[in-house]
C-alpha cells in the first residue's frame, strides 16, 4: 500500500512537472515588454515579471512572480497539501481498524434519528476540547444496539481530520500479549500514542489472572497518559458500578474515572438486518422462480 502510494506520488509529481513546463512555454509566448516600464510583463494578468534593483550603483533586472504565477503556485501548493493529507488519512485509517467493515461507518450513512448520533457528532466536532479535558465515553447497552457502529463512526470522523485513533478489543490485545516477539512496553506505548483509543466489546474477553492483569495495565497506562478512551460494552451500569470481584472493581473504577456512560436503549439492529436480508433473499429467489416458470 505504502509502495503504491509512493509510486503514485512520483507519477503525479512527474506529470505535474511536465504540465508546468508546457504551461510555462505557452505563458512565455504571450509575455511582452511593457512600453512604459520596459519590464517583461505577463500576457495573462498583465503584471510585471521583472523588477529593477540597485546592484552596486547599477540598475539590474531580476525575475519576480507575476500575480498569475503567484496564484498558480498557491494552487500547486494546495494540491500538494491535499495529496499529502490524503496519504496521511489513508495511513491513519489503515492503522486504526482491524476489520475493514468499519471503513463504511460514517455519519452520512447513518439515519438522522440514530440513537446518540448527536453525541457522536459533537464528540468529533469538539474533539480539541474533548482531548484537552480527557473526556472518554462508555457506550453501554444490549447486543446489537449500535454501540460498535457509533464508535467506528467517531473514529472515521476524527481520522478525516487527520487525528490518530486506534480501535481494537481486549481479545486482540491479549492475543498480542502472548506473542513473545512483541515488546509489551512498546506495544502499550504505541496504543497510547493515539489521540483516541477505542476498546470494543469490553467484558467479552476471557477472564483469567493473566487477562485481568493485562487489561488493568492497558487501562491504567491510558489513565496515566491522560488521553481519552471510548469503551463499548454489554455490561450495564449496575454491573460497572457494583462489580462482584476485587479484580473487576480495580478495572471498572479506573474506567469510570476516565469515561462517562452513554446508555443505548434501542432494539437489536442485527435482528433487523437479518430480517431485511432474509426478505431480500426471499424476493430474489421468488423472482427467480417466477422467471423459471415463465420459461
Automatic annotation (TrEMBL):
Protein name stated in the entry: Primosomal protein DnaI
Read off the Gene3D superfamilies from this record. P-loop containing nucleotide triphosphate hydrolases
Q: What Gene Ontology molecular function terms does this protein carry?
A: ATP binding
AAA+ ATPase domain: from which residue to which, for each copy? 133-256
PANTHER family linked to this entry:
ATP-BINDING PROTEIN RV3427C IN INSERTION SEQUENCE-RELATED, CHROMOSOMAL REPLICATION INITIATOR PROTEIN DNAA
**One record GO biological process:** DNA replication
Q: Which gene encodes it?
A: dnaI_2
Q: Name one Pfam family in it.
A: IstB_IS21
Q: Which organism is it from?
A: Urinicoccus massiliensis
Amino acid at each position: 500500500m505504502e509502495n503504491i502510494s509512493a509510486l503514485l506520488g512520483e507519477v503525479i509529481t512527474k506529470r505535474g512537472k511536465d504540465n508546468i513546463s508546457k504551461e510555462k512555454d505557452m505563458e512565455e509566448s504571450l509575455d511582452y515588454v511593457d512600453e512604459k516600464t520596459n519590464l517583461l510583463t505577463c500576457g495573462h494578468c498583465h503584471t510585471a515579471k521583472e523588477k529593477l534593483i540597485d546592484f552596486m550603483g547599477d540598475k539590474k533586472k531580476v525575475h519576480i512572480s507575476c500575480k498569475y504565477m503567484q496564484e498558480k503556485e498557491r494552487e500547486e501548493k494546495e494540491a500538494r497539501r491535499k495529496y499529502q493529507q490524503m496519504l496521511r488519512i489513508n495511513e491513519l485509517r489503515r492503522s486504526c481498524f482491524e476489520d475493514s467493515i468499519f471503513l463504511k461507518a460514517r455519519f452520512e450513512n447513518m439515519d438522522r434519528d440514530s440513537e446518540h448520533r448527536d453525541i457522536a457528532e459533537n464528540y468529533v466536532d469538539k474533539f480539541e476540547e474533548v482531548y484537552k479535558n480527557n473526556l472518554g465515553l462508555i457506550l453501554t447497552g444490549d447486543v446489537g444496539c449500535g454501540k460498535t457502529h457509533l464508535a467506528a463512526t467517531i473514529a472515521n470522523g476524527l481520522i478525516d481530520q487527520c487525528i490518530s485513533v486506534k480501535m481494537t478489543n481486549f481479545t486482540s490485545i491479549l492475543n498480542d500479549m502472548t506473542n513473545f516477539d512483541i515488546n509489551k512496553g512498546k506495544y502499550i506505548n504505541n496504543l497510547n500514542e493515539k489521540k483516541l483509543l477505542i476498546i470494543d466489546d469490553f467484558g467479552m474477553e476471557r477472564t483469567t489472572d493473566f487477562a485481568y492483569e493485562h487489561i488493568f495495565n492497558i487501562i491504567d497506562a491510558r489513565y496515566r497518559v491522560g488521553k481519552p478512551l471510548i469503551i463499548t460494552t454489554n455490561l450495564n451500569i449496575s454491573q460497572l458500578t457494583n462489580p462482584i470481584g476485587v479484580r473487576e472493581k480495580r478495572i471498572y473504577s479506573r474506567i469510570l474515572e476516565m469515561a462517562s456512560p452513554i446508555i443505548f436503549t434501542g432494539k437489536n439492529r442485527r435482528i433487523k438486518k437479518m430480517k431485511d436480508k432474509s426478505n431480500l433473499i426471499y424476493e430474489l429467489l421468488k423472482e427467480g422462480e417466477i422467471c423459471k416458470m415463465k420459461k
